[in-house]
Amino acid sequence: MLKIDNVSKIINELTILDSISCDLKDGQIVALLGPSGSGKSTLLRCLSRLTSLSNGIAIYNGTNINDLPASKIGVVFQSFNLFPHMTVQKNLTYAPVKLKLMSENSAKEKADDLLTQFGLQDKSDQHPAQLSGGQKQRVAIARTLMLDPDILLFDEPTSALDPEMMGDVAQLILASKRDNRLIIMATHELKICQLIADHILFLDHGKLVENCSKTQFFENPTSMRAKTFIDKMKL
Ligand code: ADP
Ligand code: MG
Known about the structure:
Number of helices: 8
Low-confidence stretches: none
Number of strands: 10
Strand order of the largest sheet: 6-7-8-3-9-10
Bound molecules: adenosine-5'-diphosphate, magnesium ion
Strand content: 25-35%
Mean pLDDT: 94
Number of domains: 1
């Protein structure tokens, strides 16, 4: 379980995340919803340890996330952040080999397995610029799965892709689900939540205003803010 306890993030005296608390169970897909600017990316940046917390603590199965090895938490960024000068295979093998977590050979073997699983076996020697948006995203997800993270974070997984790819993205995220892996996906798309989320966190102005099951969120949200958000997004 990931216990987020009273987490705040203050930047230049501006409160970006305001005393967020919630317990997230392993093995589920949590959708982090909210309007643009509500703090979704900032919360993911805090959880991925790219930025520090101003207040509060996040504990994963008894360990402060700051003390977890880098490999435990994986992030797939909105813009994928692939290394442009490396081949697809090298994008996957670079970090595990550099961090001495895998030998070159076993990293290549695992990369080939993942690329095959994602239908990219023939792209192994190409560079990111030669790939479509959807293919880049699959490479980014495969790269993150190389280290088999327990917590997997996605920031706006559908935003860089055509709307008709929503179903494909949902399938990809579902494919990266496994026992005991917690997936948190920031999005403002209700459709992908309806397709794959188990649990919903809804942020507004840095505050957590809904923390509930998907069914409850869509059928009976408690806050006015979530109600208006759902109504607007349905239009
Ligand atoms: P979301 O991902 O929900 O759109 P963000 O987490 O990106 O929201 O941003 C939340 C708010 O924090 C926004 O108002 C944004 O301008 C502000 N913000 C985010 N990062 C910084 C930063 N490094 N410096 C100043 N303000 C920031
Ligand atoms: Mg964002």
